Amino acid sequence: MTRKPGSSFTKTITRGPNKGDNVSFKVAKGGKPFPTRVNRDVGRSSTLKSDVPFGKKKR
Hints:
Blueprint: E1 8-12, E2 22-27, E3 33-40
Antiparallel strand pairs: 1-2, 2-3
Region (Disordered): 1-59
């Protein structure tokens, strides 16, 4: 599945140490998605937490 650059989406990770985590991604200009926020951390601490914000946005 290809996504348009600039779009964002949410996905539950299915493999690796972050399995079960719900993460928001944004698509870069080159078409490669990168994580922007860890919405829900399940089980072991997320390895993404140190790089991206954690939890829901405060409005």
